From TrEMBL:
GO terms for cellular component: cell outer membrane; pore complex. Gene3D superfamilies: Outer membrane lipoprotein wza domain like, wza like domain. GO terms for biological process: monoatomic ion transport. Belongs to the BexD/CtrA/VexA family. It comes from Denitromonas iodatirespirans. The lineage of its organism: Bacteria, Pseudomonadati, Pseudomonadota, Betaproteobacteria, Rhodocyclales. GO terms for molecular function: polysaccharide transmembrane transporter activity; porin activity. It is found in: Cell outer membrane. It is a multi-pass membrane protein. This is Polysaccharide export protein EpsE.
């Protein structure tokens, strides 16, 4: 291939990658909020370099111009606003402003329910994902379910998304590891349980794992005692209409949340 053709192909590839990166950055543009700390620089005016904290009403104090409202603006929009005030005040003729977020505290995400450290956590970068927030909250507790609920506002509408956490990693379904936004709420419900009593070695309530069978449930309860029998074993289950059902299950039958297994005493 001639050198000029190779160079042209390489140039086109670089332009495509650059455009793709710009588009992705535009989609994930961070919005400044109260509590954020930013560094502002003015090209060829080092005396105007300022570190400022965005106040609760979304304003910062900048030399010469005083208060500037930047809350709710993206970084480029905030740069343009400061430049306009410097220009309109006659302080700098052609200001070139640069803003670098140092600490992003304004936008927070609430992580609630069965996590090890529930609370509100700041978005430290504009592209933090669901897994990042779970890690900050100490991960899902032993009592937590495999699925969680993410509630947030997208395009002016409240969206509720149910996410299978193990599938993110076990199946490589990383598309569900979504980027979170300020004001989002992540909720982890308590894991489903089942109950076992009667002639078992460890009666009580236990976590119901996915696909758990009656036999596995018996094993979790320590197995049947020497006086017990699996014959005539019963499962008490609440149907969708709220009525109580009594089932004589097979050992390979799958358990349902809140099932109650009763193991009878052997007559012989």
């Amino acid at each position: 291939m001639p050198i000029r053709h190779l160079f042209k192909s390489l140039l086109c590839l670089l332009m495509f990658v650059g455009a793709l990166g710009s588009a992705q950055a535009a989609d994930a543009e961070y919005v400044l909020g109260p509590g954020d700390i930013i560094r502002i620089t003015v090209f060829q005016n080092p005396d105007l370099t300022t570190e400022a904290r965005v106040s609760e009403n979304g304003a910062i104090t900048f030399p010469l111009v005083g208060n500037v409202d930047v809350g709710g603006l993206t970084v480029p929009a905030a740069e343009s606003r400061i430049a306009e005030q410097l220009r309109s005040g006659g302080f700098v003729l052609q200001p070139q402003i640069g803003i670098l977020p140092l600490q992003i505290r304004g936008n927070q995400v609430a992580v609630l329910g069965q996590v090890n450290r529930p609370g509100r956590y700041p978005l430290e970068t504009f592209n933090m994902r669901l897994s990042d927030m779970l890690a900050m909250a100490g991960g899902i507790a032993a009592t937590g379910a495999d699925e969680l609920v993410l509630i947030g506002v997208r395009k002016g509408k409240i969206e509720r998304t149910q996410i299978d956490v193990p599938a993110l990693f076990m199946k490589g379904d990383l598309a569900k590891d979504v980027i979170v936004s300020g004001g989002d709420v992540i909720y982890v419900h308590r894991a489903p349980t089942f109950y076992i009593y009667g002639e078992v070695n460890r009666p009580g309530a236990f976590r119901l794992e996915r696909g758990m069978t009656v036999m596995q449930g018996l094993a979790t309860g320590g197995g049947v005692t020497i006086r017990g029998t699996t014959r005539g074993m019963q499962i008490h289950r609440r149907a969708e209409d709220g009525k109580q059902q009594v089932i004589e299950p097979q050992l390979d039958q799958e358990l349902a949340p809140n099932d109650v297994i009763f193991v009878k005493e052997s007559l012989f």
